[in-house]
Amino acid sequence: MERIGVVGGGLMGAGIAEVCARAGSAVVVVESEQTRADDSRARLEKSLRRAQERGKLDDAEAVLQRITVTTELEDLADRQLVVEAIVEDESAKVDLFKRLDQIVTDQDAILASNTSSIPIMKLATVTSRPSHVLGIHFFNPVPVLKLVELVPSLMTADETTERSREYVEGSLGKNAITCQDRAGFVVNALLIPFVLSAIRMYESGFATAEDIDQGLVLGAAHPQGPLALADLIGLDTTMSVAQSLYEEFKEPLYAPPPLLARMVDAGLLGRKVGRGFYTYDR
Ligand SMILES: CC(=O)CC(=O)SCCNC(=O)CCNC(=O)[C@H](O)C(C)(C)COP(=O)(O)OP(=O)(O)OC[C@H]1O[C@@H](n2cnc3c(N)ncnc32)[C@H](O)[C@@H]1OP(=O)(O)O
Ligand SMILES: NC(=O)C1=CN([C@@H]2O[C@H](COP(=O)(O)OP(=O)(O)OC[C@H]3O[C@@H](n4cnc5c(N)ncnc54)[C@H](OP(=O)(O)O)[C@@H]3O)[C@@H](O)[C@H]2O)C=CC1
């Protein structure tokens, strides 16, 4: 596909825009306001320059030329695929899908969500084209992790899923798995309760954050421990995903621990703000 749109240019949106532009697509990224758009552009430039410096990319400038960052949703009118990557909040996503349905003119265009946990049907049914809505769920960091979950709802046309698979596997070089439309899909339904258990263990004074993480890195060969991973995902996103999972399944293991809620209230959101379970240079 030649013309891609991404809504939300944060941690995930910028990564999705990067991989699509590196695959040769022209990408329009829509952010909520100009300062966020500037941040998103800066994030993209930094990541692409780093890829060039490490010899993974020949010409960062050429890739950047294919990316436009704007604050106007109307700039998505001619897109063939739009991937929504705004905050993990159901009502915000519902409002956005209503607007995208009115703005994107090509009735064959695919409207996708990168949601971590919100059932796709909730977004599909507010559009006039539920057959063209599905979840295309990337993993963080997007340029590094190979997986994409494809999540058709009960109303998604097979052709929509197949066209999405062709793009993410054929053009982006990712590996796709297909999941039923249940909160958390496959990976987060397994990963988030693990992260929440680590937070509960830390909260109870069982072990230090460093020892919990080192245990999983050295004892189970994880690339990073669960508390560092929560900081990478963002504690606000971790909290929202836990809430969606708990709402769907009512299993205590999905309930957000009080410490996570307090840290989110305090704005200790992890890597993206410089402090979560650990502190970071920004
Ligand atoms: C919440 C959801 O809905 C779903 C999710 O995404 S859940 C989160 C899933 N993500 C994970 O589980 C991440 C697990 N962690 C990891 O894979 C690794 O710790 C990590 C890739 C984040 C960092 O790896 P590391 O070895 O500690 O650091 P580092 O040496 O800096 O990076 C390793 C490679 O990744 C690249 N990299 C790291 N972060 C990157 C980023 N943000 N963008 C692009 N490339 C990046 C580096 O350039 C480096 O590449 P080379 O080896 O080719 O030079
Ligand atoms: N973090 C992760 O590891 C992963 C996250 N996801 C999912 O991806 C989505 C985005 O997460 P992430 O990138 O981490 O979040 P971020 O907070 O980093 O980025 C979200 C961006 O979207 C902007 N935004 C919010 N509302 C709108 C809107 N209506 N129109 C345009 N832009 C908007 C935000 O701006 P502002 O701050 O001004 O609101 C912010 O810049 C979520 O659904 C999340 O669950 C999926 C896989 C992994």
TrEMBL record:
EC number(s) recorded for this UniProt protein: 1.1.1.157
GO biological process: fatty acid beta-oxidation
Residue span, 3-hydroxyacyl-CoA dehydrogenase NAD binding domain: 4-181
Keyword Amino-acid biosynthesis: no
Record-annotated site: Important for catalytic activity: 137
Sequence ranges assigned to domain 3-hydroxyacyl-CoA dehydrogenase C-terminal in this UniProt record: 184-280
A Pfam family assignment: 3HCDH
Pathway: Lipid metabolism; butanoate metabolism
Coiled coil feature spans: none
GO molecular function: 3-hydroxybutyryl-CoA dehydrogenase activity; NAD+ binding
Domain of life: Bacteria
Keywords: Oxidoreductase
Family: Belongs to the 3-hydroxyacyl-CoA dehydrogenase family.
UniProt protein name: 3-hydroxybutyryl-CoA dehydrogenase
Source organism (scientific name): Janibacter alkaliphilus
